[in-house]
Amino acid sequence: MGNNNFYQTSFSFSQNDIIKFAELTGDKNPIHLDEEVAKNTIFGKRILHGFLGASIFSKVFGTIFPGEGTIYIKQNLIFLKPMFPDEIYTACFEIKEIIKEKSRAIIHTFIKNESGEIVIDGEAIIQNKIYSK
């Protein structure tokens, strides 16, 4: 887990998770759902929706780091490499700055693949009373 300024967790999403996400969002792009279509793309196989991969940030902020009471204010994202079903990824969170008077933190958010390459990079602003201390 690391120190109080850094947190990381491993995760993966299955093809079934991708299907559920497609149903929820209406994004039924065949690159996510149809292996025959996907194998003729630059990726060669089905990929995760970018926002499904990045959804790990919301889960962690709201439940673990910093946890309950967190308000997710802002997030920017750069999708650098594709993510694939059933592969293991590591989501990383590094506090860059705390703004005590607003109970906010600016956090570098990124996801690495098993080779250590960053696949999604970004920065979040969150608010939680723990940052006012």
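the 2nd protein, sequnce then structure:
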Amino acid sequence: MTETIILHVEDDPDDAFFVRRAIAKIDPGCKVQRLPDGESAVNFLASVVESKGDTLSPDLLLLDIKLPGLDGFEVLSWVRRQTYFNPLPIVMLSGSVLESDRHRAKDLGAAGYIVKTSDYREVAKTVLSFVPDRLASRQNGPH
């Protein structure tokens, strides 16, 4: 299996650090790249589309909702309008427990919604369950 790339859009450096560390402990083959805001995420992802595959595309997009500038919902909506990213799983990772936020994320095309907790290991396990290679290996059994 090749290296898995998770693009984590998170403005809080502490949250980003703990998520990255927990993912690395569970799956050392996973690389987590952090961007601090929605505009940076859109700019990076636009460059992936423009490069027509020369720039590595993430295997999973992990989005906070409350971001400076463009919020996570705006980024999610932009990404879902790019046909290049149709197969990209997008998971919202937020402190919000509002059902309206969950429904909005789903309506905009998020594959999942995870509420932030202090148990970063559980958060990481849930995040990794959305990585396409992991989904395929779970469905096909161990190799």
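Residues 135-143 have pLDDT under 50 and may be disordered. The two ends are 11 Å apart (CA to CA).
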